[in-house]
């Protein structure tokens, strides 16, 4: 369970934070004196810290420096009065995680602390490679002993200690983020920060602001200065995911940063120097994008000092079985199930499936099968129908059902869930509706994602993420309209 420490001499802040996290599984510990706070960091190892910048007997900025010596990876969120945001901004450029203005808003506190927990997990939880370690070690495990994965481990070992940019290429769901974290954990920057940014999930303006920061008034809504990740993570590692989705303007700014380690905040003139290692990833064909004039060749060369190609799951042979065992044991714990194994027929069926969504799809399918399962062994009937073919077809009945009958189908779907004794009806029903909606709009736009995103009122990146997480096959959607 994640632990949150609050150091603030204002008891109303303690109460608000405790109220915000009651019944959420987060353990909150509060104190009002700096010395007590330092002791609690030593004894309790919290996962995030809310720190008053104006403690009565201590200066929050100086205290933060002492805290960084104790635990360099503890995300510190400053709490500051409305009229002192300059100090908070100063704290950010010295590596604080973020800041909150008083009066505190419960939702903002919750959102930010949850993000800080995620960042802490990414930095803290080591990634082990299966060839070298036993499965009992703490942290995440990179499962796989296929030749393709052994080559990847070798490359990680070779490149991690060299302070160079790394480009990770591979289909969606093949584990690119896990590889980026493995490189970070084996690098000399492992005690500095690690931040991951998904370039496809933000609009151009927001992405630039997230990376480089902005000055007050730089654009509508920029009501105060914002420190970007390149400034905040000075000395650390930044993982840029989905770099193929960066706009030309962001591409040229990132190029300058890689060439000179310098940049300006959006709307600013001050040149800021930074020292960050960039690990980037994409599932898009960058060479084709360069040919089509969509991606800068000079940026590609800078990002591509060292390249790691992740093989798709269907080319990893026995890894499928190792992954199934690994996730079976993990999901038994998280879902409180006691599934002892998978029948031979079901294993054969899983081995002959081409896994277009790779490991993320394997996780999702196994999880669902475990939820549907009655008895201790997973048999073919607990797996979705697309797995029952000969492995060549990737048809997805849920996506191709005529949407005209969506209402009736939905009722039937709910009845099936009830009959199967599902304990995840809420998320299963929402997923069904999202799939119907996105399939319908993509069909109407003939697979054009920009147009579909516009109709749906979401960013192209969010749409792409949805398509991926719902495992929607675009080709199939288009052909179902033929
Ligand atoms: N070799 C592996 N062993 C164990 N788990 C893995 C492995 N590779 C990936 N995973 C898990 O699969 C899921 C997807 O991995 P990840 O997010 O790293 O993929 P990705 O290639 O970055 O995907 P995308 O391109 O969609 O961003 C994660 O939950 C990750 O922990």
UniProtKB/TrEMBL annotation:
CDD domains documented for this protein: AAA (cd00009), REC (cd00156)
Gene Ontology CC annotation, any one: cytoplasm
Highest taxon, organism lineage: Bacteria
Record-level Gene Ontology MF annotations: ATP binding; sequence-specific DNA binding
GO BP: phosphorelay signal transduction system; regulation of DNA-templated transcription
UniProt domain Sigma-54 factor interaction: residue ranges: 142-371
Keywords from the named record: Activator, ATP-binding, Cytoplasm, DNA-binding, Nitrogen fixation, Nucleotide-binding, Phosphoprotein, Repressor, Transcription, Transcription regulation, Two-component regulatory system
Presence of the UniProt keyword Phosphoprotein in the record: yes
Residues bearing the modification 4-aspartylphosphate: 52
Start and end residues of each Response regulatory domain: 3-117
Protein name: DNA-binding transcriptional regulator NtrC
